[in-house]
């Protein structure tokens, strides 16, 4: 029997849209993480060149070949700034998804395996959180922490606040999915056999049940990666995420928005286009991953 990874790769090759999406994600991720170590940080004030500010893209009149996508109000090369910004956005997205996954899987596994009052308590908390949109909840957490600590918050703390805010806004999906799967799996014969051999409840939950219920959660995590990146961009655009002095797609879009009316459209349009391309590619991969783990959906199409 073929492994899940080989089956996924084979299905990728058989699906042109998923293959193109995977290639886009791979190339953009490589550019985001491979290029910045060899380039000067454009957000370092020492590297600013105000004489190059508002240089249009190279294909427009007065454009320069040295800046193929133009520069912003500080003379930063948009191409380089977008590489740094995408790296930050991906790191925040992956980290927040990891936090949501860890919290949600832990609580969902506990609720489904323990049952009773513990299950009821966790699910009621999840129901309450579902009443708040993820973006609104992230804004509440982010704003509350900033109000409490104020001037003590620096750039690194700001990044950590955004990651935790987005992560805790997404745990409910994982918890509810894991719980429903655990309720089915805990009555299976292999669980009963593990109990007979003297396995503890924790060992049964982690070593036997969890590996069999993770597939749908990984699909949700892939899709939530795109949502997390958009949430970070939204928070930064609204001014409650990362500061303008730190690179992310959200801060680049926010900065460019200040100059749309004056004609410097490229400062905002290029980061917006990059955000859309990356998130759409991630969502296509997530949709394909769902089909791989649920062949019934594929047969219905």
TrEMBL record:
<keyword id="KW-1133">Transmembrane helix</keyword>
<feature type="domain" description="ABC transmembrane type-1">
    <location>
        <begin position="86"/>
        <end position="286"/>
    </location>
</feature>
<feature type="transmembrane region" description="Helical">
    <location>
        <begin position="90"/>
        <end position="114"/>
    </location>
</feature>
<keyword id="KW-0813">Transport</keyword>
<dbReference type="Pfam" id="PF00528">
    <property type="entry name" value="BPD_transp_1"/>
</dbReference>
<keyword id="KW-0472">Membrane</keyword>
<keyword id="KW-0812">Transmembrane</keyword>
<keyword id="KW-1003">Cell membrane</keyword>
<feature type="transmembrane region" description="Helical">
    <location>
        <begin position="265"/>
        <end position="286"/>
    </location>
</feature>
<dbReference type="InterPro" id="IPR035906">
    <property type="entry name" value="MetI-like_sf"/>
</dbReference>
<dbReference type="InterPro" id="IPR000515">
    <property type="entry name" value="MetI-like"/>
</dbReference>
<feature type="transmembrane region" description="Helical">
    <location>
        <begin position="121"/>
        <end position="141"/>
    </location>
</feature>
<feature type="transmembrane region" description="Helical">
    <location>
        <begin position="205"/>
        <end position="229"/>
    </location>
</feature>
<protein>
    <submittedName>
        <fullName>ABC transporter permease</fullName>
    </submittedName>
</protein>
<dbReference type="InterPro" id="IPR050366">
    <property type="entry name" value="BP-dependent_transpt_permease"/>
</dbReference>
<feature type="transmembrane region" description="Helical">
    <location>
        <begin position="147"/>
        <end position="172"/>
    </location>
</feature>
<comment type="similarity">
    <text>Belongs to the binding-protein-dependent transport system permease family.</text>
</comment>
């Amino acid at each position: 029997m073929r492994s899940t990874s080989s089956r996924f790769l084979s299905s990728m090759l058989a699906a042109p849209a998923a293959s193109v999406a995977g290639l886009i994600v791979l190339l953009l991720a490589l550019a985001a993480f491979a290029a910045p170590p060899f380039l000067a940080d454009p957000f370092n004030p020492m590297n600013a060149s105000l004489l190059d500010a508002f240089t249009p893209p190279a294909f427009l009149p007065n454009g320069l070949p040295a800046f193929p996508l133009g520069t912003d109000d500080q003379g930063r090369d948009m191409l380089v700034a977008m590489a740094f910004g995408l790296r930050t956005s991906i790191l925040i997205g992956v980290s927040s998804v990891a936090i949501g996954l860890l919290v949600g899987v832990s609580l969902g596994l506990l609720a489904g395996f323990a049952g009773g009052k513990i299950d009821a308590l966790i699910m009621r908390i999840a129901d309450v959180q579902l009443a708040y949109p993820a973006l609104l909840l992230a804004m509440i957490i982010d704003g509350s922490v900033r109000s409490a600590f104020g001037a003590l918050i620096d750039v690194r703390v700001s990044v950590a606040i955004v990651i935790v805010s987005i992560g805790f806004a997404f745990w409910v999906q994982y918890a509810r999915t894991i719980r429903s799967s655990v309720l089915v799996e805990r009555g299976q014969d292999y669980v009963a056999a593990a109990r007979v051999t003297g396995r503890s409840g924790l060992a049964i939950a982690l070593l036997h049940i969890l590996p069999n219920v993770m597939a749908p959660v990984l699909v949700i995590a892939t899709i939530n990666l795109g949502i997390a990146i958009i949430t970070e961009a939204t928070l930064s655009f609204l001014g409650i995420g990362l500061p303008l002095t730190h690179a992310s797609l959200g801060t680049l879009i926010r900065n460019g928005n200040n100059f749309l009316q004056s004609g410097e459209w490229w400062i905002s349009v290029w980061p917006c286009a990059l955000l859309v391309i990356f998130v759409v590619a991630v969502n296509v991969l997530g949709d394909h991953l769902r089909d791989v783990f649920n062949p019934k959906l594929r047969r219905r199409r």
